[in-house]
């Protein structure tokens, strides 16, 4: 009887968990490093990520880049005493989406904690890269969330086909007297607007650090 051959063990190649950016950086999603984060990559990505999975009116998608600029502006309207560092945190509140996309809330609920942990690691790396608190302070987080919901209300009513009553139930009514007129921008304009606001806030932040 011929001896049985020993099965050959094949090495299993681990899956790729990094993404190459146009800047040349390779961002590891499992262990993101602040060194691999560039604002140009963030602006480029967010300007091409559509809110509402693209289910909005208009010739152009309403991008996360445009949404981010508006949310930061709403934060300043709600609290005019915000410092540049807080404003920069608000502008970058959805920045992980330049890598992982904008998951709609129902899908996030299905994904659960796995999605949240990946998002949190990316957010921390981004914050460290731009000299912000690794974890957003609770009082600022609440303000940004409120501004985010206000922006979502106007997006829902003006762009995504929701009624005001439905939006009131999902996002809460916006403050009395606050009005926004949303117009989805083309990708280059959204990217430019995001970068312009970042550059202004970054300049203001650096100036405040020198005082």
Element layout with pairings:
Elements: E1 18-20, E2 26-28, H1 39-46, H2 64-78, H3 84-91, H4 97-100, H5 105-111, H6 113-129, H7 138-158, H8 164-171, H9 187-210
Antiparallel strand pairs: 1-2
Residue share in β-strands:
under 5%
Count of DSSP helices?
9
Q: Main sheet: which strands, in order across?
A: 1-2
Poorly predicted parts: none
Assign the structural class, choosing from mainly alpha, mainly beta, alpha/beta, alpha+beta, or little secondary structure.
mainly alpha
Question: Would you mind describing this structure in some detail?
Answer:
The protein is mainly α and 211 residues long. The protein has a single domain, classed as Hypothetical protein af1432 (Orthogonal Bundle), CATH 1.10.3210.10. It contains nine helices and two strands, in the order ββααααααααα. Strands 1-2 form a two-stranded antiparallel sheet. Helix 1 runs antiparallel to helix 9 and helix 2 packs across helix 9.
């Amino acid at each position: 009887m011929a001896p049985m051959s020993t099965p050959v063990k094949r090495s299993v190649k681990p899956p790729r968990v990094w993404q190459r950016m146009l800047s040349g950086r390779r961002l590891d999603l499992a262990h993101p490093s602040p060194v691999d984060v560039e604002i140009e990559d963030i602006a480029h990505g967010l300007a091409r990520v559509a809110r509402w999975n693209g289910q909005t009116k208009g010739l152009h998608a309403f991008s996360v880049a445009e949404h981010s600029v508006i949310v930061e502006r709403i934060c300043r309207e709600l609290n005019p005493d915000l410092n540049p560092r807080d404003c920069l945190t608000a502008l970058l509140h959805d920045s992980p989406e330049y890598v992982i996309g904008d998951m709609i809330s129902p899908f996030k609920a299905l994904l659960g904690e796995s999605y949240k942990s990946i998002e949190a690691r990316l957010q921390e790396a981004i914050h460290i890269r731009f000299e912000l608190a690794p974890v957003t302070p609770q009082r600022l987080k609440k303000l940004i969330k409120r501004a985010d919901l206000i922006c979502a209300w106007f997006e829902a009513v003006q762009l995504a086909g929701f009624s005001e009553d439905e939006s009131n139930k999902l996002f809460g009514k916006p403050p009395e007297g606050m009005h926004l007129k949303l117009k989805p921008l083309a990708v280059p304009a959204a990217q430019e607007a995001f970068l312009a606001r970042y550059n202004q806030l970054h300049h203001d932040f650096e100036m405040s650090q020198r005082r």
